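Quick illustration, no need to memorize.
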Amino acid sequence: MKIGIIGTGNMGKIMIEALVESEAISPSQLYITNRSIHKAKNIQKDIPLITVCKSISDTIQMADLLFLCVKPVDMFPILFKHRHLFSNNKCLVSITSPVSVKQLESIVDCSCARMIPSITNRVLAGVSLLSFGENCSTNWKLTLTSLADNISIPVEIEEEITRVASDIVSCGPAFFSYITQRFIDGAVEETKISQQQATLLASQMLVGLGDLLKKNVYTLPSLQEKVCVKGGVTGEGITVLEREIGDMFNQLFQATHKKFKEDVQETNKQFNA
């Protein structure tokens, strides 16, 4: 099986590195291209057996399975221009949420799916969100799920929860990185601990927390109960969090969904034209 990657920005590159590092595929199976071709060639320097294609059309013709890793507004022009190259034995996979699988199927005749990755997939962890088109063959469903399983936990989702699931899986690492950085900054500003020490301690705390959850030692609620001794220091901290956080996360999801609706409206104009 030959795999094409159209778009080698942040997520495209992460997918390439994860698939190769996990040995899910051989580098010689990969055919990649990018609008700025030097980005694709930089990846080839690190993974020499990858083939860099000069154009999108070359990539489509060479590959059986194609990942479209471009901005939502760039998808329709690419698909419309090259729709005749997507023969029905191929599979097209989008990694972005505003364009539905149904919209992909409205342009091309091949099997279509969506696979929303996470930066955590780079270390072969986290979740990949999968959605399949009505005409996606059983063989391609199994193939894509198997690939995702090598770099993540594959989870099939319904269209109506695509945005919130992506917020948690794909945006979540950025959100909690920001919160952790503010946690560190607060410690440095209020005490004599150094930025370096606080960063080390907080980072390792998160790694340990992840291991506890991964090994099912505790659930999130039970972990809080174990650490939060009644009348203790942790309880005082939790009281502050309860008071200050309020509806912050409600507002966060409201904001991401508002932007999502704007993106969907923009792409709908293209696909419904």
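The mean pLDDT is 96.
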